[in-house]
Design brief:
Layout: H1 32-58, H2 75-90
């Protein structure tokens, strides 16, 4: 454990933080933005391929899932339902 610990091993200078933030290694390498563009393009191409495959297999175009909306009762319908329940209890 002493050999792999960043704070306990004196021979691991490459892991030590610099005395100030300006001398510390950057957290994101400079080559990251081009890599992100390439990754986003690859993900977009994979998604388009999946949509095309879905259309070939099922014969219909893909559309995103939409949860069914429950019909909302208006205030007048709610009040009528409460009145009817009250009449049923009274009878």
């Amino acid at each position: 454990m002493d050999l792999t610990s960043k704070l306990l091993n004196d021979d691991r200078d490459e892991d030590r933080d610099g005395p100030s933030a300006s001398r510390a290694r950057p957290s994101v390498p400079a080559s990251s933005p081009p890599r992100w563009r390439l990754q986003s393009f690859a993900l977009m191409a994979a998604a388009e391929g999946a949509i095309s495959a879905y259309a070939d297999i099922t014969g219909e175009s893909w559309k995103p899932y939409e949860a069914p909306m429950a019909p909302s009762a208006s205030v007048s319908r709610k009040s009528a339902a409460v009145e009817m329940a009250a009449f049923e209890l009274a009878a």
